[in-house]
């Protein structure tokens, strides 16, 4: 069974300028995801997709096996994630002549994952027979208990109405925050569905300390602090 890892890193970033190449503990941010993919021991190829020649050059220096230049229409703020990953996979298969059964996308802005997290998510996909697997952490807030919305009249109400009154957060149905860290697909599911959520989508739960997605300077500093403190461990 052939497995491909994709890492998609756009050149433009509003929250953190030059985010994907910003140095984190002595190496570019994108290098951490490349290193984790390599350390997992799962992949026949690790491919990096970007609209930025600088990012692609750095990715090559950091050990990426294949570089994919992303077209401009897939490099805007409005570009959806699935078409970007599909383009990368299709280009890799065109360039190599190979077809990959298991496809894993690692978000370059989530460097706190471990190789074991990647292995666990892939194992869940291949063991369960599911079409895809996403990752998340236990939610701090519950739509059944303390996550609220305002209706058109400005009246506040719970985001989800429980069947029975809930007086303790611990009694609410378990909910999870997607952490944008690891996405795993079977090839047919990636190219055959337009939504990330399908009838057989499975969830791999990661702890909060390995689930931060860098979207601001504060996020970056927090991740840097956690990694320098040894909170995330390369191997468990």
Structural notes for this entry:
It is a single chain. By secondary structure, the protein is α/β, with parallel strands linked by helices. The chain folds into two domains: 3-137 and 176-228, Spore Coat Polysaccharide Biosynthesis Protein SpsA, Chain A (Alpha-Beta Complex); 140-174, no CATH class. The protein is 29% helix and 22% strand. It is built from six helices and eleven strands. The protein has helices spanning 29-40, 53-61, 81-96, 115-128, 187-192, 217-228, and strands at residues 3-8, 23-24, 27-28, 45-50, 66-69, 102-106, 132-138, 148-150, 156-158, 176-186, 202-205. The strands form three sheets. The protein has a seven-stranded mixed β-sheet with strand order 5-4-1-6-10-7-11, with helices on both faces. A two-stranded antiparallel ribbon has the order 2-3. The protein has a two-stranded antiparallel sheet with strand order 8-9. The protein starts with a strand and ends in an 8-residue tail after the last helix. One of its GO terms (molecular function) is N-acylneuraminate cytidylyltransferase activity. InterPro entries: CMP-NeuNAc_synthase (IPR050793), Cytidylyl_trans (IPR003329), Nucleotide-diphossugar_trans (IPR029044).
């Amino acid at each position: 069974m052939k497995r491909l890892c994709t890492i998609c890193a756009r050149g433009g970033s509003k929250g953190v300028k030059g985010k994907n190449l910003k140095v984190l503990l002595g190496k570019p941010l994108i290098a951490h995801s490349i290193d984790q993919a390599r350390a997992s021991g799962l992949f026949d190829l690790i491919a990096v997709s970007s609209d930025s020649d600088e990012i692609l050059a750095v990715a090559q220096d950091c050990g990426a096996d294949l570089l994919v230049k992303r077209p401009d229409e897939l490099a805007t703020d409005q570009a959806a994630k699935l078409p970007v990953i599909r383009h990368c996979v299709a280009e890799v298969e065109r360039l190599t002549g190979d077809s990959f059964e298991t496809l894993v996308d690692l978000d370059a802005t989530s460097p706190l994952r471990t190789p074991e997290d990647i292995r666990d998510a892939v194992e869940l996909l291949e063991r369960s027979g599911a079409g895809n697997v996403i990752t998340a952490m236990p939610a701090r807030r519950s739509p059944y208990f303390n996550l609220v919305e305002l209706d058109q009249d400005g009246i506040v109400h719970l985001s989800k109405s429980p069947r029975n009154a809930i007086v303790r957060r611990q009694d609410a149905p378990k909910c999870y925050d997607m952490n944008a860290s690891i996405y795993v697909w079977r090839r047919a599911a990636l190219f055959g569905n337009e939504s990330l959520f399908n009838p057989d989508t499975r969830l791999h739960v990661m702890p909060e300390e390995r689930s931060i997605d860098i979207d601001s300077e504060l996020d970056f500093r927090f991740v840097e602090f956690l990694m320098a403190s040894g909170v995330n461990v390369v191997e468990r």
